[in-house]
Write a structure and sequence with these properties.
By secondary structure, this protein is mainly alpha-helical. The protein has one domain. It contains 14 helices and four strands. The N terminus and C terminus are likely disordered.
Length: 357
């Protein structure tokens, strides 16, 4: 459903334009962003597009609220469940997960595109000029998200590590890739915006655009904190910290952690594990990156030097549950960003300009 409300009564039908020659001109809102000829000197003058801060806030706010409707939350939950499920396939889980991420990027783009029209339709998907760029950018996004798992030097199923360069590349990607999806998916009530007009809209609302781009980095931090809280509350955090990250036995000696101990008790981690966790984060490891990557690796709990009174299947199920929880948080923030960008694409549409402030 479109964020723009077309059934509001128009309150503004004309825009004022002043030619450099001094002649005052008047143009209909249909001409916003286009050029008209001056009646006096016949020079072509661009009709300005009014920026309405209050209207922009309302439209964006309405779009964000849609994400928390039950149907949207269920869809995001289902998507995170599918991604987690395919990651659990032994050996090929990560390549299959990459395909799901590509489809998720298409869904992200659709959340942007559908903001500009009244009903869900896919008519412009029939045009190769629209189909090819959309699928191309969605594929690029899916591969980029899965790249840390696909290109892990330790092999598939091993925890990815982010060095300084990797963090910088990741941050740049969180800014560039959403904008690329916006430019190929955004549209108004008539047609796709296109690259030129899409860039113009983004530049006219720099603060709203920048704030929307901060959602994915914030979501990554929120997902990591969510996993830390859940695993700590359930008593699994110490075991995961030692078992999933490389060099667990070495760090157990450094921090005087007993090699053989029962880590199935529901107790909060002590100071040693908190210090170790901070150190592993500094080294580039995180729960949010490690847990999903570990799902496709073969589980052999009896080979662990730390005691965990669970079967291999139970341990896989627990890791899958944690992975889905973190993925769900990221999906919510991605949906919020998509609806935010979609709302920006409608701010200068004809219906938005004509609707009540």
């Amino acid at each position: 459903m479109s964020i723009v409300e077309p059934d509001r009564s128009p309150t503004r039908k004309f825009l004022q334009v002043v030619c450099p020659c001094g002649r005052a001109l008047r143009a209909s809102v249909d001409m916003a962003g286009q050029e008209i000829s001056c009646w006096e000197c016949h020079r072509m003058v661009r009709v300005p597009v009014p920026r309405l801060t209050e209207k922009a806030y309302r439209i964006i706010n309405d779009g964000l609220h849609e994400v928390f409707e039950p149907r949207w939350l269920f869809t995001l939950f289902l998507g995170s469940a599918v991604l987690t499920g395919v990651l659990c396939v032994p050996g090929i889980g990560i390549p299959l997960g990459t395909l799901v991420l590509v489809l998720g990027a298409v869904g992200y783009g659709e959340l942007i595109r559908q903001c500009g029209i009244d009903v869900w339709d896919f008519d412009d998907w029939k045009e190769p000029a629209q189909l090819i760029p959309r699928l191309g950018v969605a594929t690029l996004v899916g591969l980029s998200v899965a790249a840390p798992m696909l290109l892990c030097p330790r092999g598939l199923g091993q925890p990815p590590r982010y060095n300084t360069l990797g963090v910088i590349i990741g941050l740049v990607a969180t800014q560039v890739l959403p904008l690329a999806l916006f430019l190929v998916y955004a549209r108004d009530e008539k047609q796709p915006l296109g690259w030129r007009r899409g860039c113009s809209v983004l530049l006219r609302y720099p603060m709203a655009t920048w704030l929307s781009l901060t959602l994915i980095p914030i979501g990554a931090v929120a997902a990591e904190l969510t996993l830390f809280v859940i695993t700590s509350w359930q008593g699994m955090f110490p075991f995961l910290l030692l078992d999933l990250f490389p060099g667990g036995e070495y760090f157990a000696q450094v921090y005087d952690i007993p090699k053989y101990g029962n880590y199935t008790r529901e107790v909060l981690p002590d100071e040693r594990f908190l210090h170790l966790y901070a150190r592993r984060l500094h080294q580039g490891f995180s729960l949010m990156a490690t847990l999903p990557a570990s799902l496709s690796a073969k589980t052999f709990i009896l080979a662990s030097p730390w005691t965990l009174e669970l079967t291999d299947m139970d341990y896989l199920r627990i890791r899958a549950m944690y992975s889905q929880a973190g993925t769900m948080v990221l999906f919510v923030f991605a949906a919020l960003q998509a609806r935010w960008l979609g709302a920006i694409s409608t701010l200068e549409s004809k219906r938005s300009l004509e609707s009540d402030v």
